[in-house]
């Protein structure tokens, strides 16, 4: 555990000292986003555009995360055990890509449909049965939606064959 904490500290310090626009805390055995990170990164949080938290054991992500990293463009949360996102995710004005693959979502996180800049949503390998197709179809920037390996109900499968302005990746039976 001490090694994991030291690893997180090293990565955070590198982001601050080198003025990086990205923060990679993937595979750090995190169960949540460390509260202390907010303090360490407060002077550079506006510069951070990309955060990778893939391959951890995160069950939740706080609203403070989204209110702190307001300039975020890309967020990679794949391979955690998330079941939902806080409402504040809908206020991300610059986000273009979110990777939520291989988590534990059973309901599509509809607040994502409020992000006008969002181009890519990856929800492969979750437990989602229904998609908010009407809301998705009104997203101005959406280009790509991956819902492979989700137990989508048959009415969604039928509706997904209608023409949309974005690509939908599905698992075909």
From TrEMBL:
Name under which the protein is recorded: Leucine-rich repeat-containing protein 20
The UniProt keyword set, sorted, is: Leucine-rich repeat, Repeat
The question of whether Repeat is a record keyword is answered with yes
Which domain of life does the protein's organism represent? Eukaryota
Q: Known PROSITE patterns for this protein?
A: LRR (PS51450)
Question: InterPro entries, from UniProt?
Answer: Leu-rich_rpt, LRR_dom_sf, LRR_domain-containing
